[in-house]
């Protein structure tokens, strides 16, 4: 009975962790799908969102109230970054987008360090400090809110891409840029929107994470690293793939951390990635 | 070919004079770091520049050398033996990990190298005989036999020898069958396969050489700092530094890694010294901004841009495609 409770506890933890990974990863995969760019600074966008949430909390707005504001701010930030920077990278060879976004990563981490120092900072008096109990299961309210919020937002993004006119335009650009242009789609506008929405995803994720995590200049990096694996595991460009990959990674990480050792918790995740891409080089749900 | 050899000889001569004449430890440290990173960048360039498989896990091969060196010293074996041993271990690791992963395309390969490196990092941190997370502190024993020198100039000389050797090897690569096949595979792997180039075989050879050269740099690094631990040798951040040096200079070019290492050492290290330590982050701001500017305005890297410029002036072609120019840079 006790083993069963432990298992259920780990299962719940894995799913909730995985849902947060999914929200970070869908932003990455959307950008990749539309313009073939892996944004290596994605985690630093997350870090900026966390600092923004903290700033709002210091003037009295809870992370929940701050979430839409931070998401909008990151959306605008993403569009500006696309217009000023990413657009130019796209004109160069493929490796330009790789090291350009790495440069952005270094720049943003450095800025955060210079402006906010390397200290770990948390939201003072965060809401949802209690723990919910279901039978033998204990789940902190903050973790539950993070997972549920991430699920709702991931679903909303999926619905947006699937059912709106703009979403359809994005899918058209993802499928065939030239044909989309011929159909009268403004590719630059669609790219900019996709980049903005990708940033808004980590904007929302950053606000949710401040419920239980501290922020520091490299706070986003581990999430982004996991998101790269999630996106590749699910297949670059696939939103459903990102969700499936994220849940798999969340479960592997939580179970691995418990049954192996905390130091080895990522090993099953990476082994699973290697095993899956060796069989399916395009990831679980990716296109060739 | 001749101008490259003359340039190499000039660098070697300048380096020797500098190692003999300069006694400022900070300058010698910067020069040593420059040569070491230029070597590492070039080793990365073999598989990622010429081969076109961008690796974000190259530090594990550097780590092979550093750890082999540390283990040799700790167990009373000459660190000179760590050079062939570390290179062999690294080449073997490259062959084992490259065999399945080199078939992956684009970002799937890059993420696979991150995965492999992260697994190696996690395993090293849990193995007692590899020092776990604490690593090794090497006992001090000055002299040629123990490859340790009180005078930093000798380290500069050794790094110079390694750098010149790796540059010569790369010069040879550019004129060898392996070099031509790699460029053909990178330009169009399907076309290359259709004329009978065995992609896996040639990329495995390039990957093994690339790993072995990085391991030699690792041995030297361990003997220089006398301290080896995961964050300073095999961590993802080291891999990313190596890759950035490769691309900032211009991938798939002979002098690109050296140019990239110069930017890295001058900006990331010297600026950090000037601004008082790396804690403030200003060095990262400057280095990151430079990478962004180069990526946006000169996406073929420093050397790639210069090569383009020379071609255009010579009028070799009315409109040389920049990508081909960077690939053909010799």
UniProtKB/TrEMBL annotation, chain A:
PANTHER family: AMINO ACID ABC TRANSPORTER PERMEASE PROTEIN, BRANCHED-CHAIN AMINO ACID TRANSPORT SYSTEM PERMEASE PROTEIN LIVH. GO terms for molecular function: transmembrane transporter activity. InterPro entries: ABC_transp_permease (IPR001851), BCAA_transport_permease (IPR052157). Keywords: Amino-acid transport, Cell membrane, Membrane, Transmembrane, Transmembrane helix, Transport. It comes from Vulcanimicrobium alpinum. It is a multi-pass membrane protein. This is Branched-chain amino acid ABC transporter permease. Belongs to the binding-protein-dependent transport system permease family. LivHM subfamily. The chain crosses the membrane at residues 6-33, 45-61, 67-85, 97-116, 136-161, 193-213, 267-285.
UniProtKB/TrEMBL annotation, chain B:
Pfam families: BPD_transp_2. GO terms for molecular function: branched-chain amino acid transmembrane transporter activity. It comes from the Bacteria. It is a multi-pass membrane protein. Keywords: Cell membrane, Membrane, Transmembrane, Transmembrane helix. It is found in: Cell membrane. GO terms for cellular component: plasma membrane. The chain crosses the membrane at residues 31-47, 59-77, 83-104, 111-130, 153-173, 204-222, 234-254, 284-307. This is Amino acid ABC transporter permease. It comes from Vulcanimicrobium alpinum.
């Amino acid at each position: 009975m006790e083993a069963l409770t432990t298992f259920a506890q780990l299962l719940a933890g894995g799913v909730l962790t995985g849902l947060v990974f999914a929200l970070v990863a869908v932003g990455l995969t959307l950008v990749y799908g539309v313009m073939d760019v892996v944004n290596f600074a994605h985690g630093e966008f997350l870090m900026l969102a966390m600092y923004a949430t903290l700033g709002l909390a210091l003037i009295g707005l809870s992370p929940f109230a701050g979430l839409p504001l931070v998401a909008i701010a990151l959306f605008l930030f993403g569009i500006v970054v696309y217009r000023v920077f990413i657009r130019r990278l796209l004109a160069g060879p493929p490796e330009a987008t790789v090291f350009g976004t790495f440069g952005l990563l270094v720049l943003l981490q450095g800025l955060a360090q210079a402006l906010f120092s390397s200290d770990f900072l948390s939201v003072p008096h965060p809401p949802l400090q209690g723990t919910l109990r279901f039978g033998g299961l204990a789940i902190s309210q903050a973790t539950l809110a993070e997972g549920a919020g991430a699920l709702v937002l991931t679903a909303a993004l999926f619905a947006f891409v699937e059912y709106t006119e703009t979403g359809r335009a994005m899918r058209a650009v993802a499928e065939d840029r030239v044909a989309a242009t011929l159909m009268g789609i403004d590719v630059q506008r669609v790219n900019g929107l996709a980049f903005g929405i990708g940033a808004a995803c980590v904007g929302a994720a950053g606000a949710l994470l401040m419920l239980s995590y501290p922020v520091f200049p490299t706070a986003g990096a581990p999430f982004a690293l996991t998101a790269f694996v999630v996106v590749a595991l699910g297949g670059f460009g696939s939103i459903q793939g990102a969700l499936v990959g994220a849940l798999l990674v969340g479960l592997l990480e939580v179970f691995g951390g418990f049954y192996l050792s905390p130091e080895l918790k990522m090993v099953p995740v990476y082994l699973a990635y290697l095993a899956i891409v060796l069989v399916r080089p395009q990831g679980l749900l990716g296109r060739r | 070919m001749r101008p490259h050899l003359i340039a190499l000889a000039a660098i070697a001569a300048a380096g020797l004079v500098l190692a003999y004449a300069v006694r400022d430890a900070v300058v010698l440290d910067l020069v040593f770091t420059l040569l070491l990173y230029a070597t590492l960048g070039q080793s990365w360039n073999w598989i990622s520049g010429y081969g076109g498989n961008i690796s974000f896990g190259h530090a594990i091969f550097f780590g092979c050398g550093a750890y082999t060196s540390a283990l040799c010293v700790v167990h009373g074996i000459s660190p000179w033996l760590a050079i062939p041993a570390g290179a062999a271990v690294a080449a073997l690791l490259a062959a084992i990990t490259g065999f399945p992963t080199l078939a992956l395309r684009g970002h799937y390969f890059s993420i696979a190298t991150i995965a492999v490196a992260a697994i190696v990092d996690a395993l090293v941190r849990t193995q007692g005989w590899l020092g776990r997370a604490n690593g090794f502190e090497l006992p001090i024993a000055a002299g040629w036999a123990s490859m340790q020198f009180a005078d930093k100039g000798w380290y500069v000389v050794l790094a110079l020898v390694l750098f010149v050797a790796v540059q010569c090897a790369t010069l040879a690569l550019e004129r060898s069958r392996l070099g031509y096949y790699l460029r053909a595979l990178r330009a169009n792997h399907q076309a290359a396969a259709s004329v009978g180039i065995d992609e896996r075989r040639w990329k495995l050879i390039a990957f093994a050489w690339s790993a072995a050269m990085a391991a030699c740099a690792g041995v030297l690094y361990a003997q220089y700092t006398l301290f080896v631990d995961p964050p300073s040798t095999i961590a993802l951040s080291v891999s990313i530094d190596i890759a950035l040096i490769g691309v900032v200079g211009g991938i798939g070019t002979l002098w690109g890694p050296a140019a990239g290492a110069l930017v890295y050492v001058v900006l990331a290290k010297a600026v950090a010294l000037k601004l008082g330590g790396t804690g403030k982050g200003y060095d990262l701001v400057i280095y990151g901004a430079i990478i962004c500017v180069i990526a946006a305005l000169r996406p073929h890297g420093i050397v790639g841009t210069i090569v383009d410029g020379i071609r255009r002036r010579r009028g070799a072609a009315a409109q040389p495609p920049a990508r081909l120019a960077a690939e053909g840079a010799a």
